Amino acid sequence: MRLKISLLKEPKHKELVSCVGWTTADELYSCSDDHQIMKWNLLTSETTQVVKLPDDIYPIDFHWFPRSIGGKKQSYAESFVLTSSDGKFHLISKSGRLEKSVEAHGGAVLAGRWNYEGTALVTVGEDGQVKIWSKSGMLRSTLAQQGTPVYSVAWGPDSEKVLYTSGKQLIIKPLQPNAKVLQWKAHDGLILKIDWNSVNDLILSAGEDCKYKVWDSYGRILYSSQPHEYPITSVAWTMDGELFAVGSFHTLRLCDKTGWSYALEKPNTGSIFNIAWSIDGTQLAGACGNGHVIFAHVVEQRWEWKNFEITLIKRRTMEVRNVINDAVDLLEFRDRVIKASLNFGHLVVSTSLQCYVFSTKNWNTPTIFDLKEGTVSLILQAERHFLLADGGGLYLYSYEGRLISSPKFPGMRTDVLNAQTVSLSNDTLAIKDKADGKVIYIFEALSGKPLSDGRPLTHTTEIVEIALDQKGLTSERKIVFIDKNRDLHITSVKRFGKEQKIVKIGTMVHTLAWNDTSNILCGIQDTRFTVWYYPNTVYVDKDLLPKTLYEKDASEFSKNPQIVHFVGNQITIRRADGSLIHLNISPYPAILHEYVSSSKWEDAVRLCRFVKDQSMWACLAAMAVASKDMATAEIAYASIGEIDKVQFINFIKDLPSKESRMAHILLFSGNTHEAETLLLQTGLIYQAIQVNINLYNWDRALELAVKHKTHVDTVLAYRQKFLEDFSKKETNKRFLQYAEGLEVDWNKIKAKIEMEIAKERERAATAASPAMVHEMISIDLPDC
């Protein structure tokens, strides 16, 4: 990726340009010390003067009023705030009419910013004050006062906090009085510029120490650049938070959100005092010290999937290269390309007006449809369909271009969604709520309706990243998420009222990805690269989970690596310096998943015997128990030396009735409540009581015995034996109450138990006999 720069031969402004801002994707306003506000039309390459400001107004900063207000999106901005050196800020209309001037600070007003909703304006000045104003320019409050000038200010993503500079320090101050203020030393020199992105919640800072830095919203450093030759005078995020630009003297740099640099340009601009990204994030403009306005387009973005490599070579042209046969195709578009995604055998490209869907099998005939709203901010793909997010909403389309659904939830803000906070599979869509970070909304993909009873999934702490698995049955869909403490959790997507608990399966996890063809999960936790070959093991046999993992030292990936893809058995990881590392894992677990999903148990056992790997046997054991195939489970557990479990499986196989066997399989997986419910529903009361006795759930065993008026003496006898073994006396009042006047006769109890088992056998035999009779008839038929 690089920047394609355009700079006029002669500057249009006579003095330095202090600030720039986009009204639409092709129209820009610039302000200069020559008191002129100029309008630049990029389609016609015309430059016109909007207004000549009075001679005493020297502009310092300006910011367009937000385009989306109360969910209604305007196609262009109508007015802007301009701060100036005379201590005032001015509200000016798009046509250049001065609506209002407000005395704001003693000394120059160094920055002014509207919040995301357009309900408040923050200004900072040389007098060290941070002030909040209403939309009409009325003073609401003075948020902070200090002895040094405040050079830059930014709103937090929720417009509840304000970030501002204080010499070498950065300060985040909430608007609520008495709320905790976060302050830290960020640079060794004066901080000149800051920016806070609403999508990724990351902070940029630039200073006179010639460095730029990336921080999270807790003040933890994520990236610090090498010192440049000159102070960094400007930084700016793109709207989607994927890229940022850095400006300095004769320097313009394009960087990834993690900090590493894509491109460095050395244009003849003087210092770049201000950078503004266009709304669609495809181009930027810079305010230059020598009177120029520099324009730069982002080109040569690349997308890779299997054997295809796609490059955006011009704004409206893509080059597709098949690396197997070196075939090259050129894709031409009517408008400029804004977003693209390549996955699952399809390329989805959104331009400013249309969406194109190409199949990797045929590049000549794309499906084309018009977009409802303006700029697409996110494209997510699954095997059967893809999701588009823009300012107006979320839209799920099939690869044939048919609109499938448009999910919504209260307070949804689509402009702040990214690939970490939205996840899509063939049947499910999950979205992390921006307002409450502990909540995940889950939707049926095909209908767009909330799943089950409509209640979202709620965690105890704030969630950072979510991911749905891509394969398997709809009823077994799993979601994993990383929370604020960097713990990795897994849970079932709730359907039909059955709720599975949230289970922690990893700690200090920085990045993760599901495989595209089987439910294998990979992630980097602390200093280890980990692959969970069968994450569902936690719901089958939790003790087995460590045996189903593949682990490798991750120190070669450097600090803060990111997993880019997990396709087939290849994992692509991007290091902190931007370089890509390709890792291959064993192909056998994916083959095992395939066999098990097709119920080819003999083939699965044969594969494990061929590979001779403990983790494969452990996966097979868990898969077999999950599918209730106890014969395969017995072979697999025996192969990894889990003798106690093999014995329990043999005990299950000898149980007389099918219901009893099912209940004990549930017990094996730790689902005691479901096992008991199953036994009670099928009328096996004694077995339900015995299960609770074996688990030492004495109170529940007695409760069932009393409720069903049977085997009270059995419970008391086992309880008495248990206490005698430990030389203890009975202290439980309920047991003392029922034990009064009751003689424990073990012979009687044993006879009762034998009778219960005989009854169960008889019942199982009668249930099986109609099937046997049917079988005999079908065998005899040919002789008739």
* Low-confidence runs: 69-75, 771-784
- Helix count, per DSSP? 12
Overall outline: elongated
Structural class: alpha+beta
Oligomer: single chain
> Span between N and C termini?
80 Å
Strand order of the largest sheet: 1-30-29-28
Query: Quick check: average pLDDT?
Result: 88
Largest sheet: 4 strands, antiparallel
Question: How much strand?
Answer: 35-45%
Give Rg in angstroms: 33 Å
What fraction, in percent, of the residue positions are helical?
10-25%
How many β-strand stretches?
57
GO cellular component, one term: intraciliary transport particle B
GO biological process, one term: cilium assembly
InterPro entries: Beta-prop_IFT80_2nd, TPR_IFT80_172_dom, WD40/YVTN_repeat-like_dom_sf, WD40_repeat_dom_sf, WD40_rpt
Protein name: Intraflagellar transport protein 80 homolog
Which key phrases capture this entry?
single chain, four-stranded antiparallel beta sheet, elongated, 784 residues, 57 strands, alpha+beta
